[in-house]
Amino acid sequence: MSSNSKKILILAGDGIGPEVMGEVKRTLGWFEKRRGSGFETEDGLVGGCSFDKHGVPLTDETMQKAIDADAVLLGAVGGPKWDNLPFKDKPERGLLRLRKDMELFANLRPALVFDALAEASSLKTELVKGLDIMIVRELTGGVYFGSPRGIETLPNGERRGINTQVYTTSEIQRVARVAFELARKRGNKLCSVEKANVMESGVLWREEVQKLGDTEYKDVQLSHMYADNCAMQLVRQPKQFDVIVTDNLFGDLLSDCAAMLTGSLGMLPSASLGAADKGGKRKALYEPVHGSAPDIAGQGKANPLACLLSLSMMLRYSFDQGEDADLLEKAANNVVAKGFRTGDIMAPGCTLVGTKEMGDEILKELDRLAA
Amino acid sequence: MSSNSKKILILAGDGIGPEVMGEVKRTLGWFEKRRGSGFETEDGLVGGCSFDKHGVPLTDETMQKAIDADAVLLGAVGGPKWDNLPFKDKPERGLLRLRKDMELFANLRPALVFDALAEASSLKTELVKGLDIMIVRELTGGVYFGSPRGIETLPNGERRGINTQVYTTSEIQRVARVAFELARKRGNKLCSVEKANVMESGVLWREEVQKLGDTEYKDVQLSHMYADNCAMQLVRQPKQFDVIVTDNLFGDLLSDCAAMLTGSLGMLPSASLGAADKGGKRKALYEPVHGSAPDIAGQGKANPLACLLSLSMMLRYSFDQGEDADLLEKAANNVVAKGFRTGDIMAPGCTLVGTKEMGDEILKELDRLAA
Ligand SMILES: [Mg+2]
Ligand SMILES: [Mg+2]
Q1: How far apart are the CA of A247 and the centre of ligand 1, in A?
Q2: TM segments (chains A, B) (predicted)?
């Protein structure tokens, strides 16, 4: 594979995944036709749809394709249909395997408020207007992956469930480096979050991040915060943060809490990055923050913007097409500012549109901006 | 100790603890004098102040006194002075030992909004006005206590930090029972929260809670939610919840998040309960949600209401003095409605008061209400 290849594996997944991915594909087509981006795309299955067809939430073959791709675009996985499957067959296991086998250790979760949508937040508008936080969540370690794990039956007939929270120096350092680098390109502030007051893994986390700050990133303003306090501070005064770095479990809750602060979950993209290879290229997976929304799946109502903004992150981080990324983000901003809204971000006086109409408006706006 | 004894161990702790506890003592005095409550109080040390005097954050002697008491009232522990102590000496270890050795497995965290303070929330007023959630957090199990734990050095020179998340059937059942019982006395709705999609300990949690619901509490409306979604839902629409039951770590973050939603952390009490003895009496510890606030300690500025409302929970849950508890809560409500405010809940047009003046107003209001 040449370093100029742009091989994209598209995993639309379950629920609304295929619908929103449809708009992404049309937009990819626009970039091919109008901007000469030479993408090579292929489709694959992940989650419940893969289980239904192959009996596993992700096949070895698809896993290998993801590893070979330059970037993976994912829709969403899961739904009530698969809720009672055994643990190893659950749709989420497919997503977790992708992250694990691609070694995507850094999950970038922007919490960003579009001006036109600031009113949509459950927080008072002045607290979120202009909000721009980047949460970097460690994604391949910690308690979601540690061993031993499982449920065992004790001699007295009781059952015991076990999971193991574990982090090593290098796991902490590599994700902290991504966060320090991002901070340098943003407001130069990094807040590291753990529970060092009650967990040894948190003590290690704090010490290793501080050590990096003291040696390689003296120019970045580093602070530390306990995870429960961070949950409070996000609600109290979210704009105090620039970049947050935290572990897998705390990052799961805190990034979702921050996402909801924006009031527009249907707008939020994410990127998951691995280590850089010799050419500086990182394995990468891009996906919207929202889930598979089984309640509205197949109805053409889903908001495709989060998936489209994930495409924008892909253009920026995987293919160095910053200008194209800017163009797509600008188009999304403009379409929303003009009042086009899917149900999830609908507001009085705005125009309610479906998934496909929203995609149409994006393409029209891209045409206008590129004219 | 007779079953009518009212032996209270008072552990004021660090930072603003002693100040707010001073007002609690005056109020206890009021109940003794005016309502004939025969309390027997004793003071003890916990946290940094205990470490400074005895070299440990809690002595065996004080631990025994706590076990022998009918109720323990605690102020707050911790502060920057003790932040760099070895793990076992940290102030928080004293508090954790109290919870562990008294087997206080159920932490009751009301998130309640006083009408006069609804505007103080960072959330839009209509989303929090009348908010009344009860979060029941498991407090003696899970990843803050599980073994193995610690930091080890690996052969390659790296370090590894480990903690263990572990729950047994009976640990889950006993805290779930407290939550089901509370739900019955409230809105009859219980939401159980875990990460069953990625953690086996969460699978066990969900199964055991559901089993209890199916057998002993069929009348209670039971639902399940993933912890990250719960963090979002608390921010989006907190009034959807009545009682939430969750594990130690998730409860730590979610109860603090819910507390901050109220906008008035200085108002929130908590109770931690153990198993009922033959006489139906539970070991119990009552403490405000706020921390030791070292930045304002010793300045007479701290809000004593959370500690006073903790006293009210003590009257209700440990001494069956529901009427007295109502009286104290009513007094707190009235004083705030009249516009008396410490700095943390100050609002335009209100009267700024210090810790002692707030205590004075509570006593005056109690006099008025009891007249
Ligand atoms: Mg999540
Ligand atoms: Mg906490």
Answers
A1: 12
A2: none
User: In the predicted model, what is the mean pLDDT of chain A?
Assistant: 95
Dihedral angle of Cα B142, B147, B150, B154, to the nearest 10 degrees: -120
Residue A78 has pLDDT above 60, yes or no: yes
What percent of chain A is predicted at pLDDT more than 70? 99
Mean per-residue pLDDT, B105-113: 95
C-beta separation of B262 from B345 below 8 A: no
Interface with chain B: mutation pick from A246, A256, A265, A292, highest number of B CBs within 10 Å: A256
DSSP element (H, E) containing B275: strand B269-276
Would you call B153 exposed, middle or buried from its count of C-beta atoms within 10 A (0-12, 13-18, 19+)? exposed
CB contact under 8 A, A87 and B203: yes
Chain A, chain B: beta-carbon pairs less than 8 Å apart: 190
ipTM of the modeled complex: 0.88
Q: Which ligand is nearest to the CA of A226?
A: 2
Q: Would you call B260 and A235 a contact, using CB atoms and an 8 Å cutoff?
A: yes
Q: Which ligand is nearest to the CA of A195?
A: 2
Closest C-alpha to A228, from B289, B117, B151:
B289
Contact B296, B335 (CB under 8 A): no
Candidate CATH numbers 1.10.10.10, 3.40.720.10, 3.90.870.10, 3.40.718.10; the one for domain A132-261: 3.40.718.10
Sign of CA dihedral B284, B290, B293, B297: negative
Q: What is the pLDDT of residues B196-229, one digit of tens each?
A: 989 999 999 999 999 999 999 999 999 999 999 9
In this complex, the residue of A235, A252, A260 whose CB is nearest that of residue B122 is A235
Phi and psi for B264 in degrees, rounded to 5? -140, 70
Q: How far is B238 from chain A (nearest CA, A)?
A: 10
Contact A169 B160 (CB under 8 A): yes
Based on its alpha-carbon atoms, the radius of gyration of chain A, rounded to whole angstroms, reads 20
**Is the pLDDT assigned to residue B3 strictly greater than 60?**
no
- Prior bond to A148 cis, omega within 30? yes
Q: Are A75 and A307 in contact (CB under 8 A)?
A: yes
- Output the average pLDDT for chain B: 95
Decide if B1-107+263-371 and B132-261 have a common fold: yes
A214, A228, A277, A367: which one is catalytic?
Answer: A228
Q: What is the mean pLDDT of residues B272-293?
A: 91
Pick the CATH number of A1-112+265-371 from 3.30.9.10, 3.40.718.10, 3.40.50.150, 1.10.3720.10: 3.40.718.10
For residue A202, name the pLDDT band (cuts at 50, 70, 90): very high
Among 3.40.718.10, 3.40.50.360, 3.10.690.10, 3.40.50.1580, what is the CATH number of B1-107+263-371?
Answer: 3.40.718.10
Question: In A133-199, which residue ranges form alpha helices assigned H by DSSP?
Answer: 169-185
**Cβ–Cβ contacts within 10 Å for residue B60, how many?**
11
Mean of the pLDDT values across residues B86-108?
93
Residue A178 pLDDT > 70: yes
- List the single residue in B124, B200, B259 with the smallest CB-CB distance to A232: B259
- The predicted structure's pLDDT at residue B225: 98
Domain map of chain A by residue range?
1-112+265-371, 132-261
Q: For residue A281, what pLDDT is reported?
A: 84
pLDDT of residue B1: 38
B264: pLDDT confidence band, cut at 50, 70 and 90?
confident
Q: Which candidate from B92, B163, B168 shows the least CB-CB separation from A200?
A: B163
